[in-house]
UniProtKB/TrEMBL annotation:
This is Conserved hypothetical coiled-coil protein. GO terms for cellular component: cytoplasm; prefoldin complex. Belongs to the prefoldin subunit alpha family. Heterohexamer of two PFD-alpha type and four PFD-beta type subunits. It holds the Pfam family Prefoldin. GO terms for biological process: protein folding; RNA polymerase I assembly; RNA polymerase II core complex assembly; RNA polymerase III assembly. One of its GO terms (molecular function) is unfolded protein binding. InterPro entries: PFD_alpha_archaea, Prefoldin, Prefoldin_subunit_alpha. The gene is Bma-pfd-5.
Length: 126
């Protein structure tokens, strides 16, 4: 059995109210997650903390490369590490910022179609 990872376009007008509501909730969750991810990435990216300290060896630095993982690096390697990390974070933020407008457009299309279906239903009931 072969599984396809291709995205399929679905005509929103063909969906029922339950399906539209389900997709709206799903998009709301995705938008909230991406928005929160962007806030966290921005916080990590711009967070600075200064503490008094004595530098024992000014040519070597203890750098946190992951949660609780530290590596001793010379100044040149440390600067290179942080430049690469900064570039990575910028790319991730750009990806999230690029996806959010698409999610909002899809959500708005679903909400508009859902509202039309509800209006048609209400006019038929009266």
């Amino acid at each position: 059995m072969e599984v396809s990872n291709e995205k399929q376009a679905i005509a929103i007008a063909d969906l029922g109210v339950d399906q539209l509501t389900h997709f709206q909730r799903q998009l709301d969750q995705e938008i909230a997650f991406l928005t929160e991810s962007l806030k966290v990435a921005t916080l990590i990216f711009y967070f600075q903390m200064y503490i008094p300290a004595k530098v024992v060896d000014p040519k070597n630095h203890l750098i946190e490369i992951g949660t609780g993982y530290f590596v001793e690096m010379d100044t040149e390697k440390a600067v290179d590490f942080f430049r690469r990390k900064q570039g990575f974070l910028k790319k991730q933020m750009e990806v999230i910022e690029g996806v959010l407008p698409e999610k909002y457009r899809a959500r708005n299309a679903i909400v508009d179609n859902l509202q039309k279906k509800i209006n048609v239903y209400c006019s038929q009931v009266q």
